[in-house]
């Protein structure tokens, strides 16, 4: 290595090397001197022939335009672009002949450099090989009538091949720096506005055809294919290289670019533009992998304003195809396709996780109805995902008419019902077990991009569901529900419901369900058919109580969700129940073979055509029950037929009467009542709340160990059996007035004595009853053949007139008639 370095050193210091180095230096210096001489000669030539050169350039330009060309000054740039001749045009303006009408200057440039071929110039030919435009404004204007200021250029006459020469003017290179370019097409409502920092291109000609690579660095101010809808890629930086080619035969420009940067994202673009007279068709195809928000922000405002309400967390593969006519009004045809895999979709109504689908957007859903929002559609295919933890599968979903969007499709789902708990934000229902399957054809409106009024046709099956319906404190276990949505009605089949001691089997129908559910829930009639092997009637009261309390506490929300809308419908709809029960329990009352029609309106329970068997007899009734503060107000119209009076009174806690208990009386009671009153939250009758009319009679009756009669009998009837009194007649006509009862007619015909009473009986203070008691022994009156005969002997003999009055809360018997 040292030997090699020593050899090189000796060579560089040798006389031969110095000789050749000196000659090479003279050669370089000669070339520099020659260049300076040539440049000086060109400068001398320009200064000497400036007027002639300017005249040739003006002539050349004016030969090719229909307008006005103005140059402020010319300048030769010494050595710039050598060996070409570089001419700088200062303060250049180019206007068409109608400039005064529209006031848009086609070209206004601070400086334009034209590099001319020196040999062509010496032969009196202008051959421009490169144009540099610096600090300029270019405004291409097209009026509503089709006129364009770009038509300033005269069409070239086509020459035969033999007439063409190599000396024809061509421009091989074009550079733009700091150029503001606007294409304003008022006819087609299009506006393209670019701030071009740099554009560089070098053209290769093949006869009349050419191709070039164009480097472009610009900011997009507007790329509006329809100015009514806004710009694509507005305020985005665009940077990249375009491969551009022109075919003279097809009169078409083709453009291809790869990894074009728009903002921070890369795009692959293929495009074409027709230039033939009367044919301004174009097509642009864009492919990229991009985040949803970034893609949305590249689109025009009418599209991005909608898409920005959605989001996908991971990048997606997108292809956008734009085709149109620069001379046509309105939007071009736009088709966007996207592939989404293992992504998370955010929508105004929530989030859909683990979603996969193919999405298509088109603004020409029906080919003959134009390119507009009303004819736009979004189509999703092979959609799968989880909405609020509920798995969804949608083979195809179409959202048509983006002015008034309507979505249609089919959805299926198969899941454990506990997942429904995540849908209810206000936690009004909680599921603990069960399995659900759904297969539905759906349609819903989209208002402000929120799902509204979803309509379904299909089936939902829920098996073995257990839930807690919190507003009414209902807890159900092992409930089966089968719903069949049809166009005319909702059919509710095979609901098996168990709650505490109650078992209920339900079928139902809601006519015109799809319309009334959203537009008039108060007009919705839910028809139920219920069969109950065993039910506790108090549960109905519990439902009413909780519903009323929840209703007053309910808070309004800014937006009606599916969950809280369902709650509203449940509260407002009319429920009609045809019920049949083998066994009903109400406090101590046990009824069998019960039938009734029950209506639930808001918080009111209306019972019609009720019929039941209890206490050895039957009862028919109509009734209404509704919450009243902490209690329940009821009204009833009932007929009691031959029930065991002791058992019946025991079932209703003796109606609050404390002066005797059901063990004191027996017999078959028949009664007719038309009363109102209050029931407490435990289902107990509030005695002093009752108002109305009551008539009754007891057959085969007996009064056993009734203390007031026993007390009287000790001194009044010492030889009669007052502890075991049988009745041939026990009847009454009462008017209930809360705490007091007007006894209009109370008749006892018994084995011990007869008794008639009238006046006031009070559950509290104020009793004042007039008692008429014949002292004759009535034991044998039962043997008389007719009632007339019994009435004739009823008051023979000595008759006692007594009063039963209130004495400090106790009943006291006095002599005398009422009021004396």
UniProtKB/TrEMBL annotation:
InterPro entries: AsmA-related (IPR052894). The chain crosses the membrane at residues 24-46. Keywords: Membrane, Transmembrane, Transmembrane helix. GO terms for biological process: regulation of protein targeting to membrane. GO terms for cellular component: plasma membrane. It comes from the Bacteria. This is AsmA family protein. It comes from Flavobacterium circumlabens.
């Amino acid at each position: 290595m040292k030997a090699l370095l020593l050899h090189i050193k000796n060579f560089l210091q040798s006389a031969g090397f110095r000789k050749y180095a000196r000659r090479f230096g003279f050669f370089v210096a000669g070339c520099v001197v020659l260049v300076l001489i040539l440049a000086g000669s060109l400068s001398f030539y320009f200064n000497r022939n400036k007027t002639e050169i300017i005249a040739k350039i003006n002539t050349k330009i004016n030969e090719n335009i229909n307008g006005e060309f103005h140059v402020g000054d010319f300048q030769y740039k010494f050595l710039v672009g050598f060996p070409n001749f570089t001419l700088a045009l200062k303060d250049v303006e180019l206007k068409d002949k109608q400039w005064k009408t529209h006031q848009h200057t086609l070209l206004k440039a601070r400086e334009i450099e034209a590099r001319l071929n020196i040999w062509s110039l010496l032969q009196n030919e202008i051959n421009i090989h490169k144009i540099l435009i610096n600090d300029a404004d270019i405004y291409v204007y097209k009026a509503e009538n089709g006129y364009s200021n770009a038509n300033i250029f005269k069409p070239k006459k086509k020459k035969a091949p033999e007439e063409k020469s190599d000396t024809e003017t061509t421009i091989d290179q074009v550079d733009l720096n700091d150029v503001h370019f606007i294409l304003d097409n008022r006819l087609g409502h299009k506006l393209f506005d670019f701030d071009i920092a740099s554009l560089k291109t070098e053209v290769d000609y093949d006869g009349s055809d050419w191709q070039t690579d164009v480097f472009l660095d610009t900011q997009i101010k507007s790329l509006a294919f329809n100015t009514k809808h806004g710009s694509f890629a507005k305020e985005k930086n665009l940077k990249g290289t375009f491969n551009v080619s022109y075919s003279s035969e097809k009169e078409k420009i083709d453009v291809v670019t790869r990894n074009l940067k728009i903002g921070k994202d890369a795009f692959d673009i293929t495009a074409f533009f027709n230039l033939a007279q009367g044919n301004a068709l174009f097509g642009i195809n864009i492919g990229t992998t991009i985040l949803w928000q970034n893609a949305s922000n590249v689109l025009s405002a009418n599209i991005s304003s909608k898409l920005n309400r959605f989001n996908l967390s991971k990048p997606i593969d997108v292809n956008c195809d734009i085709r149109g006519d620069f001379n046509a009004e309105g939007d071009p045809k736009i088709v966007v396709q996207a592939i989404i895999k293992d992504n998370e979709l955010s929508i105004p109504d929530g989030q859909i996780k683990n979603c996969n689908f193919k999405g298509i957007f088109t603004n020409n859903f029906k080919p003959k109805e134009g390119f507009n929002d009303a004819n736009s559609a979004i189509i999703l295919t092979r959609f799968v995902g989880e909405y609020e933890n509920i798995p969804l599968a949608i083979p195809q979903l179409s959202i048509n008419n983006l002015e008034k969007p309507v979505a249609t499709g089919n959805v299926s789902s198969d899941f454990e019902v506990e997942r429904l708990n995540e849908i209810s934000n206000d936690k009004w229902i909680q599921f603990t077990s069960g399995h659900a399957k759904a297969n539905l054809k759906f349609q819903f409106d989209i208002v402000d991009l929120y799902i509204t009024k979803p309509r379904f046709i299909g089936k939902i099956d829920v098996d073995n569901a257990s839930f807690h319906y919190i507003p009414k404190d209902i807890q159900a276990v092992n409930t089966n529900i089968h719903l069949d949505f049809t166009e005319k009605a909702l059919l509710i089949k095979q609901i098996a419901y168990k709650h505490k001691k109650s078992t209920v089997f339900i079928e139902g129908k809601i006519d015109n369900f799809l319309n009334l559910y959203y537009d008039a829930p108060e007009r919705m009639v839910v028809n139920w058919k219920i069969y109950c092997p065993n039910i506790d009637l108090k549960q109905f009261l519990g439902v009413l109580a909780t519903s009323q309390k929840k209703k007053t506490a309910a808070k309004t929300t800014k937006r009606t969700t599916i969950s809280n809308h369902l709650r509203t419908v449940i509260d407002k709809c009319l429920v009609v129940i045809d019920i049949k029960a083998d066994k009903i329990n109400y406090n101590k009352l046990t009824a069998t073979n019960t039938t009734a029609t029950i209506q639930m309106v808001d918080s009111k329970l209306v019972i019609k055509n009720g019929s039941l068997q209890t206490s050895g007899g039957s009862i028919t009734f109509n009734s209404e029950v509704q919450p009243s503060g902490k209690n329940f107000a009821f009204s009833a119209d009932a007929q009691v037929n031959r029930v065991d009076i002791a058992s019946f009174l025991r079932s209703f806690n003796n109606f609050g009467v404390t002066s005797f208990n059901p063990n004191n009386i027996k017999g078959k009671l028949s009664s007719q009542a038309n009363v109102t009153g209050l029931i407490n939250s435990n289902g107990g009758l509030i005695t002093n709340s009752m108002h109305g009319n009551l008539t009754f009679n007891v057959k085969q009756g007996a009064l056993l160990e009734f203390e007031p009669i026993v007390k009287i009998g000790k001194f009044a009837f010492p030889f009669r059996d007052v502890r075991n009194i049988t009745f041939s007649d026990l009847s009454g006509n009462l008017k209930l007035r809360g705490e007091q009862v007007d006894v209009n007619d109370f008749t006892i015909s018994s084995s011990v004595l007869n008794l008639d009473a009238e006046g006031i009986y009070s559950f509290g203070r104020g009793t004042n009853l007039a008692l008429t008691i014949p002292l004759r022994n009535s034991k044998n009156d039962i043997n008389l053949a007719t009632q007339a005969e019994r009435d004739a002997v009823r008051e023979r003999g000595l008759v006692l007139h007594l009063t039963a009055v209130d004495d400090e809360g106790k009943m006291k018997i006095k002599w005398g008639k009422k009021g004396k």
